[in-house]
Amino acid sequence: MSGVRNGAESADGRETVLSGECVAYSVRESARASRPRIDVRPAGVTVVVPETDRSRVDPDAVLAGHAEWVLEKRAAMAARRERAPDRAYGPGATWPVLGAEREIVVERRRSSTVDRDADLIRLARSHVDRTAHKRALEYCFRETARAEFERRVDALAPEMGVADAVGGVEVRNQRTRWGSCSSNGTLSLNWRLLLAPPAVLRYVVVHELAHLRKRDHSDAFWRIVAAHDTEWERHRDWLREHADELIFDESDL
Q1: Is-contact 31 48, C-beta < 8 A?
Q2: Range of the domain at 227
Q3: Which of 6, 132, 140, 190 pairs as cysteine with 112 (C-beta 3.0–4.6 A)?
């Protein structure tokens, strides 16, 4: 991914020109890399080179060899950043949690929680003091997501005839996936689904539970999904169109 603005300076001041565009970049050595690669992320463009080949790799040549790809990724990242909401993590900020905008408050309490009745995100002052608003908020979201996922799975798995096949529920931090189902029946779900409408979150749970009956994406699989979510196509399309609205911070892009 990318997000470097034209003419911006990279960490080590390197720049090159690709198809007439000035691209700032940095170079990072990696003991794990077996060949040069390019990382294009919100923080910038990085040419990653194997430690053993550092003196033999020309970063400008690596970038020139993938110029079109780099520029496409930069443009895509710029568009994503335009769509992504500005995020704040302290008192008074609001977040879309389980279908409603909820305001952050910091209180003296034993634990942080999402108060659905009052439309509040109640952060424990002790947790905020030990870490920071952002860390406390993420922990609250993860724990709330865990409870919501487990509740949904407990309700849907028997309905879909897969209760005995569920191997557990894990809350994950995937950057590119909303959910997955392992061979042992463990469902891994992205905690950022907490920021999506409840019907969309439910669709992802239905989707992964359906994989306990059909491991592929055949017509038979989608018939199972449709039997338990008649609007699954609309929910799938919502995720595709609004994924950038579900970011927690810039590292999600």
Answers
A1: no
A2: 140-252
A3: 140
What number of CA atoms fall less than 13 Å from residue 107's CA on the CB side?
A: 14
Last residue of a domain, one of 83, 107, 122: 83
Give the C-alpha separation, 231 to 250, whole Å: 31
Q: Same structural domain for residues 79 and 170?
A: no
> Are 209 and 157 a contacting pair, CB within 8 Å?
yes
Gyration radius (Cα) of the chain, Å: 22
CB 214, CB 221: distance < 8 Å:
yes
75 or 10: which carries more pLDDT confidence?
A: 75
| Segment 84-135, tens digit of pLDDT | 788 999 999 999 999 999 999 999 999 999 999 999 999 999 999 999 999 9
Q: Where are the beta strands (DSSP E) in the chain?
A: 14-18, 21-30, 37-41, 44-50, 94-97, 100-107, 113-115, 120-124, 168-172, 179-181, 186-190
Are 169 and 208 a contacting pair, CB within 8 Å?
Answer: no
User: In total, how many domains does the chain have?
Assistant: 2
